[in-house]
Amino acid sequence: MSNKSAGFDQTFLHKQRSRLVKLRAELLRSIQDEQREEAGLYSQSADEAHELEDDAQKLAMLETEGNTINRNRRRLRDIERALQKIDDGTYGLSDASGEPISRERLEAVPEAIYSASELKTR
Fold first, then answer.
1. Predicted local distance difference test score (pLDDT) of residue 55
2. Rounded to an integer, what distance in angstroms lies between the CA atom of residue 22 and that of residue 15?
3. Which of 106, 74, 104, 73 lies closest to 90 in space, CA to CA?
């Protein structure tokens, strides 16, 4: 688990790995909860009389929850990638350019796989 190319010590990498594993568990729970809630809305909607306003509200809620689930899934992919990068010794290097990602960014967003400036162009 050497990370000489990004210049991070083992203590920092261990801390980041722990944070990433915890974030992954939280996101997986959140995704499961949101999927259960979404399924409940669908089944509840099928059993009730329909009013246009209620249907519109439920559709808006389902869309919002769907967006949240998709965002969480993307974040989960980034977490998995960051964990792989720790194992590969490339944590802290951008997937796009290979340039270093600042320690400050990694402390704020441990799953960062691109530098802040690269995000603006994506």
1. 58
2. 11
3. 106
